[in-house]
Amino acid sequence: MQTKSNREELIAMYDWYRQMRETQAVSQDPASGMWNIFRYEDVERVLSDHATFSSEQNRFVPPSTAM
Q: CA-to-CA distance for 18 and 45, rounded, in angstroms?
């Protein structure tokens, strides 16, 4: 059984990131529900626009009307 060299693994990883930037720049992982963001400009916006992008889950839950 032949394994990939470290260099081949690194090249494959960079090819995958390039492909993701070109085809799925923003995608949600169905298993974890986490968002993946691959383009620099998109990452920069997510990290600086706190009003739009937040990990605070409570802000998306409507207030309870039960007493």
A: 19
3-state class (DSSP) for residue 45: helix
For 40, the domain range is: 26-50
Task: Evaluate whether 28 touches 35 at the Cβ level (below 8 Å).
Answer: yes
The pLDDT tens digits along the chain (67 residues) read 567 789 999 999 999 999 999 999 999 999 988 889 999 999 999 999 988 887 777 766 566 665 5
- With respect to residue 12, please indicate whether it lies within any of the assigned structural domains: no
| Calpha distance 45→53 (Å, rounded) | 9
Please list the residues that pair with 36 across neighbouring strands: 27
Query: In this structure, is residue 35 part of a structural domain?
Result: yes
